[in-house]
Amino acid sequence: MSDGNIFLSAKGIHKSYSHAQGELEILRGVSLDIREGEALAILGASGAGKSTLLQIMGTLDKPTQGEVTCEGRDLLAMNDDELSKFRNSEMGFVFQFHHLLGEFTALENVMIPARVAGENPKDAKEKALHFLDFMGLADRAEHYPNQLSGGELQRIAIARALVNRPKILFADEPTGNLDSNTSVKIQDLFFRLKEEMKLALVIVTHDLTFATRFPKVYRMKDGQWI
Ligand SMILES: Nc1ncnc2c1ncn2[C@@H]1O[C@H](COP(=O)(O)OP(=O)(O)O)[C@@H](O)[C@H]1O
Ligand SMILES: [Mg+2]
Q1: Which of 86, 162, 177, 189 is 20 to 30 A from 199 (CA-CA)?
Q2: What percent of the chain lies above the pLDDT cut of 70?
Q3: Percent of the chain scored above 90 by pLDDT?
Q4: pLDDT (0 to 100) of residue 1
């Protein structure tokens, strides 16, 4: 199930913040290898450091110490411009809140990463429609965020994360804001898209029933694996 090559590797990750009271250590030497096409969950109580680790692996934040490499490339050595290009093409992100732009339709929201990547409007639209359809939302393409339910908004956010066909999808508490029925539907969708798109899937959650659906579960406490 997970015998692909290592795609993304984080080694000896430390993250700390200086406060008036001294140094606060959020991550204390965490390492994680993610293989091509594998699915894993990171489980832990609030404040454990899960989001911080996800942000560091996703190049949205930098560690105080440690290495992050992707297919042999040192991600910590890239400048902001290189990183944003890399991120936009290789990585998809889904968060607890959908972060869709209210003044744009579902379709336009999903098109944005493709347009940023340089796709022309016609191709970007075609790709966005494909993923909206994949999410079962083809008939909601022209709706604005305030005309959609929580589960629909999250499915659109997932379509947006997929539009550039990333090799890895990071999701931080993606069902944290949904009722339990909708949550299970979104969970099912993650597993289906993982199978069909052959992407690596890293989910952060404090939901034990969601986490245990993954072949691999890492548990974090106080900035370390347990
Ligand atoms: N920018 C920051 N400055 C100081 N402390 C932070 C910052 N971001 C997160 N933290 C602290 O790091 C700890 C871990 O946070 P986080 O990674 O969000 O945990 P989790 O996602 O597991 O709930 C928390 O105690 C949080 O208060
Ligand atoms: Mg978090």
Answers
A1: 177
A2: 99
A3: 93
A4: 45
Which atom of ligand 1 sits closest to the CA of residue 50? Answer: 22
Domain 39-60+88-225 sits in CATH 3.40.50.300: yes
Q: Where are the domains of the chain?
A: 39-60+88-225
Q: For the chain, give the longest Cα–Cα distance.
A: 55
**Token representation of residue 78:** 């890239």
Tens digits of per-residue pLDDT, 79-133?
999 999 999 999 999 999 999 999 999 999 999 999 999 999 999 999 999 999 9
3 state SS for the chain: CCCCCEEEEEEEEEEEEEECCEEEEEEEEEEEEEECCCEEEEECCCCCCHHHHHHHHCCCCCCCEEEEEECCEEHHHCCHHHHHHHHHHHEEEECCCCCCCCCCCHHHHHHHHHHHCCCCHHHHHHHHHHHHHHCCCHHHCCCCHHHCCHHHHHHHHHHHHHCCCCCEEEEECCCCCCCHHHHHHHHHHHHHHHHHHCCEEEEEECCHHHHCCCCEEEEEECCEEC
pLDDT at 217 over 80: yes
Residue 181 tokens, joined: 């029925």
Q: Report whether 170 contacts 137 (CB < 8 A).
A: no
pLDDT-derived band of residue 2, with 50, 70 and 90 as boundaries?
very low
Residue 214 alpha carbon to ligand 1 centre in Å: 25
Question: Could you tell me the distance, in angstroms and rounded to a whole number, from the CA of residue 52 to the centre of ligand 1?
Answer: 6
